[in-house]
Amino acid sequence: MNKKSISINLIHNNDQARLSYIRPNILALGDALKDKFDVYSGEASYQPSIVLVSTRLAVYRDFLYWELNRKWLRYRKLKRQLLVVDFAKFCLKSVLKYVINIKEAKKWRRNCAIEIAVTNKHILSLQYSLNIKSDYLLVFEDDAVFLSDSITNISRLMDKLDGFDEQSMYIDLAGGCSPEVLKIDKLEISKDSDFRYYAKPVTNTACCYLVNKKQLQIFNDFIINKPKYRYVGIDWMFNQLFIESEKRKIYSKCCHADPPIFKHGSVTGQYSAWIR
Q1: Is residue 215 packed enough to be buried (19+ CB in 10 Å), middle (13-18) or exposed (0-12)?
Q2: CA of 26: how far to CAs of 95, 125, 131, 196, in Å?
Q3: What rounded mean pLDDT belongs to the chain?
Q4: What are phi and psi of 5, to 5 degrees?
Q5: Using CA of residue 61, residue 64, residue 66, residue 72, what is the dihedral sign?
Q6: Cβ distance 163 to 172 under 8 Å?
Q7: What are residue 272's phi and psi, to 5 degrees?
Q8: 159 and 101 co-located in one domain
Q9: 37-90, pLDDT tens digit by residue?
Q10: Do 261 and 179 form a contact (C-beta atoms < 8 A)?
Q11: Cβ pair 121, 237 in contact under 8 A
Q12: Number of structural domains found in the chain
């Protein structure tokens, strides 16, 4: 019987201090999995020089986030403001940002460039895994922090996944925001000592996540057909792709490790966030 395969991909921006820590840990994880899986490793790091995006693109991204947030509220079964009121507030905030508070707008235009570059690295990672026909993709951003039992817990998790080959699957492994901050409690259907389970897929941050081939195909198809989502942050992009999936009655198994299997270093304070 042929072994299944897993791609372990690292998203980074060539920070050598972070790489000197996380690369050996990823190597150790691969060694722990190689008896049961064909293990492939990849990295996505290239990005153009970070320059301010145009004001036009920055405003467009603001509009995308406003539009996507309305969909996200409905998806989580939360109340939305009246469309006309909400849009009026968006317009007022835009005027204040780009006409009055030029410094804030300049910072946002730089952050836009960083977010777009990071999202593109994740997309490249998804496509790499599809191209080599991996059964699973495990992604780390370079601010993921291994715990003493992280490798053991991932190995245990991988032993349980054989039954989900026919169903798309998304597993959040490093957390970041609390469920209360995410406001996804209405979607939670159960909880055990290791995971919270959700009726509809949702992501936390994209610090570390595991997906199967079926989910990779769904992500890739929507990204091609909805290219505008490339302009938003990766966690927002994933959640919007889940929303698009629901519209087409495509349902994914989703759970979040709780407690997280890895720490999100930018949230715990062990690292500084890419966007500051």
Answers
A1: buried
A2: 46, 15, 21, 25
A3: 93
A4: -120, 150
A5: negative
A6: no
A7: -90, 140
A8: no
A9: 999 999 999 988 999 999 999 999 999 999 999 999 999 999 999 999 999 999
A10: no
A11: no
A12: 2
Helix/strand/coil (H/E/C) assignment for every residue in the chain: CCCEEEEEEEECCCCHHHHHHHHHHHHHHHHHHCCCEEEEEEEECCCCCCCCCCHHHHHHHHHHHHHHHHHHHHHCCCCCCCHHHHHHHHHHHHHHHHHHCHHHHHHHHHHHHHHHHHHHHHHHHHHHHHHCCCCEEEEEECCEEECCCHHHHHHHHHHCCHHHCCCCEEEECCCCCCHHHHCCHHHEEEECCCEEEECCCCCCCCCEEEEEHHHHHHHHHHHHHCHHHHHCCHHHHHHHHHHHHHHCCCCCEEEEECCCCEEEHHHHCCCCCCCC
- 66 and 104 both lie in a single domain: yes
Q: At which residue do the structure tokens 């109340």 appear?
A: 79
Is residue 274 one of the residues assigned to a domain? Answer: no
What is the span of the domain harbouring residue 175? 4-51+109-265
- Identify the pLDDT of residue 160: 86
Supply φ then ψ for residue 38, to 5 degrees. Answer: -80, 120
Q: Each residue of 192-219: pLDDT tens digit?
A: 999 999 999 999 999 999 999 999 999 9
Residue 2: the pLDDT is 79
Please give the Cα distance from 266 to 197 (Å, whole number): 25
Q: What is the pTM of this model?
A: 0.93
Structure tokens belonging to residue 123: 């997309």
